[in-house]
Specification:
four-stranded antiparallel sheet; 16% helix; globular; alpha+beta; Immunoglobulin-like; 40% strand; five-stranded mixed sheet; 182 residues; single chain
Amino acid sequence: MRRGVGHAMALAGVTLVLAVGCSKGESASTTAAAGVSASSAPAASTTVAPPATTSATTSPTASTAPAGPLVAEAGGWRLVITAPTTGATIGPAVDLCYMLTGPGQASVAFEVALLSAATGSPSSSDRVSGAVGAGSARVNLGSPDPRFYDMTIQAVVNGQPIAGLAVRFFVRFGTAAPAGCP
């Protein structure tokens, strides 16, 4: 009889610990493992799904990067890229739409590169001239394989890349005409 009461009390204790832990936002397996000794509670089992992987031909998740303009600030300069946008499908010719502001007039260029999303190795690149202020530049990226890439845009001011004045986001290379700038 005492043995049955002991098991019932242990079960009630585990239930109480699980209920309190779950109401605090903790998982039941964490609470049971931390709050009850192994001799009085049954072993908790947890099923963990393997992490989702993204192949080079599938779409990255929407939470990878925010939509809208991409912004970088460094050395008194501010770079805003309005096109292409994160997740856009681009073709060999791409219109780069930007706003570059800073402490004065300067000679400006942009180094644009497509990097393999899987390995980070460069697949294609182009360097185009720009200007301080709002502007656009036509970038020619050649013909890399159609798939997802990371695109980097680095501002070069007076012949020097400014550390931190770059953006990186993903695009899909395919067949798309240059979209122009708003």
